[in-house]
Known about the structure:
The protein is mainly α. It has helices at about 15-40, 45-55, 70-90, 110-125, 135-165; strands spanning about 95, 100-105. The protein is built from five helices and two strands, in the order αααββαα. The protein is elongated.
Amino acid sequence: xxxxxxxxxxxxxxxxxxxxxxxxxxxxxxxxxxxxxxxxxxxxxxxxxxxxxxxxxxxxxxxxxxxxxxxxxxxxxxxxxxxxxxxxxxxxxxxxxxxxxxxxxxxxxxxxxxxxxxxxxxxxxxxxxxxxxxxxxxxxxxxxxxxxxxxxxxxxxxxxxxxxxxxxxxxx
Length: 172
């Protein structure tokens, strides 16, 4: 659309790529800080399951036709997300302290998070050459959801197992 004889300035895909990379780096930092803070409080079902539940609202993006991707892309992205969750699952341990379940801080967590960030940036750079920016966002949202959802489900299972083993548990 031309306004006053001038073409509108649209963000280039390079700027969007840089913006999304910076955004993902900020999100990774937030995740790291939240995880460090959460390790100081007892784990609960709500604290474990709310992040993927909250993130699931992002699926509303698919109401916009430009974000639609083939089902095969979504399936591959979800499976890659599951693969990305495996190092997080392997290094996330819970322990009972003073009759409460806590997530045990892992020294490997920051390194794993940084490694996943690097892999994500490389993959994003590759994928964006073949599909639109909005479709790339869709693919990487599904990947992130697959990773977070799988990791949190594994945490939930570990939490429930510890809860069942607690000798002080009230039976009703």
